[in-house]
Amino acid sequence: MFHGKVRAVAFDADDTLWVNEPFFDRAKAEIAEMMSAYIPAEEFTRILEKTQSRNVAVFGYGVKCFVISMIEAANIAAPDKIKSSEIEHIIAVGRAMLTAPVEPIAGVEEVLRTLGSDYELLMITKGDVAEQQRKISLSGMSVYFDHIEILAEKDEAAYERILHKHSIRHDEFLMVGNSVKSDILPVVGIGGRAVHIPFHTTWVHEVVCEDDLCGREYVEISKAGELLPLLTR
């Protein structure tokens, strides 16, 4: 489908190259269970999601913002009741997330090795720089990429800057990722191409409504290996 049309292929990192969101899901469930002594777990989760979405604009993406948001949500849910030991537990959960091993998604490295000989490869991820650099280092995947970009946000302006920086034409650029909001819509919006690989769980902040997809053309596949027939020359 993309033969002869694409020069540079970019990959998202979290939940595209390696597992990420399940760590957050497990942490949410654990703290929601702890907070169920004060408030139903479902209600705490709603408070946390609202708090985290608000805090991202100030603290950015990543575990540190998540931990701050869990502490704030716990205080909202149980004002003057939350114990210091429970705050310490939230911090311990965050520390465990920041030191967890990196779990590559099956089949991704084979795809990167195959495409590397014919395409300029980029990794484009967003989040806390130190957190992302740690995962990049532990994954061992940096060897496959010509360029690695860690962004505060993935929007049209950010992608425009990257294409200009690396002298890549819009119609020669393909973005591959799991987030329609961050990896697909902004790229299609500036005239690039995009391939969506859904992950089995998605952060609520990254969910888009059906109306946002109207008129947006992109390809959806179920796993990274299905990218090769679209690109292999």
Automatic annotation (TrEMBL):
<dbReference type="InterPro" id="IPR051540">
    <property type="entry name" value="S-2-haloacid_dehalogenase"/>
</dbReference>
<dbReference type="InterPro" id="IPR036412">
    <property type="entry name" value="HAD-like_sf"/>
</dbReference>
<keyword id="KW-0378">Hydrolase</keyword>
<dbReference type="Pfam" id="PF00702">
    <property type="entry name" value="Hydrolase"/>
</dbReference>
<dbReference type="InterPro" id="IPR023214">
    <property type="entry name" value="HAD_sf"/>
</dbReference>
<dbReference type="GO" id="GO:0016787">
    <property type="term" value="F:hydrolase activity"/>
</dbReference>
<protein>
    <submittedName>
        <fullName>Haloacid dehalogenase domain protein hydrolase</fullName>
    </submittedName>
</protein>
<dbReference type="InterPro" id="IPR023198">
    <property type="entry name" value="PGP-like_dom2"/>
</dbReference>
